[in-house]
Write a structure and sequence with these properties.
The protein is an alpha/beta fold and 214 residues long. The chain has helices spanning 16-32, 67-76, 92-102, 121-138, 154-157, 171-177, 192-204; strands at 6-10, 38-42, 57-60, 81-82, 111-115, 142-146, 161-164, 183-184. The longest helix has 18 residues, at 121-138.
Length: 214
Amino acid sequence: MRSPRLILAAHGSADPRFAAVVEEIAASVRRRRPELDLTIGYLDHGPPHVEDVADAVVVPLLLSAGFHVRVDLPARAPRATITTAVGPDPLLCLALADRLALAGYDGSAPVTLVAAGSADERSLDDVRRQAAMLAVHLGVEVRAAFLSAGEPKVDALEPDVVASYLLAPGVFHDKLGASGAAVLSAPLGAHPALADVVLNRYDDAQVPGRTAPA
């Protein structure tokens, strides 16, 4: 029996660097599963648009389960199976730790995990859960902070070490660059852990009872 198509649903951006990262993640997934029918769909700044899909498994390439996962995607792709977002997930700690190490982090100081933010408190809680996972992984204190909606704001904290909890370069990461942190990691980008999480979400969608967003 043929496996269902996988739609990698990304937010989208006018910045071409965002699409480049999404394409790299998709290429990484295809290398792991060359037989898989994979298509990218964008919530904004398409085409391709997510509503162009029919019967498929949609994996939101989003780092928290806010409005897009709970409301927008089910409305725009009503015949698709929508999985949970790729974040939070313990595997993302591997990517975050690697990005911090490349930025010069020595593993001793507290870390601030900074996300874009959301008006949905459940989405903010997802970021806090990822911060708690990263704290266990690194063995140091990790607190969550936000650039737009959500508290605390990173500007108020003035952290020394910042882990960028963003998918790709763009306006939000550029704003982080002005935070004055001594160590600032790059966005997650196309780290191999992202492809692993995407495939885990896709595989879980084949098991009844595991696909509904939290």
